[in-house]
Q: What sequence folds into this?
């Protein structure tokens, strides 16, 4: 992650992710038309918040860390532009799963 | 479950399931037309998350384990494609029941 | 309950019930037309889950047991087919009452 | 209450009530037409459940007892037929008040 | 409050109130037409329940007492007829305020 | 605040406020037409309730006191007439902020 | 922040922010028409409340401080005019993230 991310810190249990670049070609090498490119659900965690407090007041640690590859839900997330690059903010609890590195 | 699943880990109280293949023939051996094939509600658990925290902050263990045969609810679940195979993510609390192995 | 039920275990606070056979004749012996047969609300418990956890994390025991005769609510319940027989899954908290054996 | 009620036990914080018979005549002795008979909101408790658990898991005792005369809310309640007699199930918390015996 | 009220006891955190008689004349002595009489929001407490339990199971005492003059909210409340007189049931938490006697 | 307010006591976490008189002229001295007078959001606290109980049963003290100048939200609040003067009841938690005296 | 803000104190977990002035020109120096100016989501914290109480009654400290640069969500926030300048009130939990100074 470039220096910019160390500067930006999501709050509470939010995590900042960068989606993978979409596959422009099918396995067989045929170009996929722009419109047909579904939303990319694979992404990398670029910044994480400190975690949110539960009802008893203790901060709950997050389950994902910077650099991990995660699977995003189809809906939700907030688009955020930082230094002209497109990122998305999700809640830790909305991330579906991660790939053990 | 193939190596791929050990790599992918659902988060919180989510479990990854693979539905049984649909019965293509009736008991009497007559082919069932594609359209008439209802959703298959029998499935196998292929990966489980670590569990979710309850209000007091302790992680609640899951009630199903990898390899168990379970009964899925008719609705809900998130379709997920991993290495071109179709799986579904459910919450542990949504699984209706399981067959004692 | 046949062996099949011992094998199938509802999860959390769900209970599996089998509705009584509908009365086909009125007290006076007149056949009741199929359409007029209301839903049968009397049933027997055939399998019970382990119970669900409350907020403090302890498992809450169920109030009905296998073999007991219960009164079902008019609505709710999930139809489940096990070995071609029709059962219903209810939450323990939705069962209206039971007859002391 | 007849023997039948001792056999039927409402569950959790439900109570079984039997509504008073409607007044068929006005104070002045004039017959009230069937349609004009409003719902009878006075009733007697004929069976009570064991009570429901609160969040900390302890069972909360009910505030009404068998034999007490209570005032029902206008709406809510579940009609239940036991041995061809009409009763109603209410939650303890829905009973508006009671007459000190 | 007449003997009737000592007999009727609201349950949980409900309180029974009797609205003041509406002012039939303006300050200047002009009769107010029936239709123009807004709902009277001033009332007296005639009976109180024992209070409701909070989540930890302890009974929460009420903030109003029999005989106090209170200000009712414009909406809500359940009309109740006791011995042909009109009263209203409110939750203690819905009473807006009271006049120090 | 006149004697009347000491007599009226809001209940729970309600506070009684009196809105400032609207500015009838613009800074430049031009009369503002009645219709154009927006709702006045500046007000003074004239009476406060004892506070409400939280889930563990302890009374939570209020954050505003009689005499303080506060900023009201645009919506919400209950109009209340006491001795022909117009006041408003708000919940302590709805007051947006206050001016340090 | 001018003196005025030290005087105004948001209540509970509200924070007062001042949005950055919108960029009137594109990177290439072309004037952006008024209508095309999206909402500015970058802002500075000018005043913070004392924090809100959680369920157990303890006050939860805020995660942002006066002077910090924050990223606002696209929706929500309450417009507030103080001494003819435009500010916005947000809940601490709604602020998406902040830039480490």
A:
């Amino acid at each position: 992650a470039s220096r910019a991310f160390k500067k930006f810190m999501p709050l509470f249990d939010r995590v900042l992710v960068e989606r993978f670049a979409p596959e422009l070609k099918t396995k067989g090498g045929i170009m996929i038309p722009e419109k047909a490119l579904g939303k990319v659900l694979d992404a990398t965690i670029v910044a994480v918040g400190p975690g949110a407090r539960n009802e008893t007041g203790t901060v709950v640690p997050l389950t994902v860390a910077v650099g991990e590859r995660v699977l995003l839900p189809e809906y939700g997330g907030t688009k955020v532009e930082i230094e002209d690059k497109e990122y998305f903010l999700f809640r830790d609890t909305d991330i579906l799963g991660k790939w053990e590195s």
Q: What stands out?
A: Chains E and B do not touch (no CB pair under 8 Å). DSSP finds one helix and nine strands in chain E.
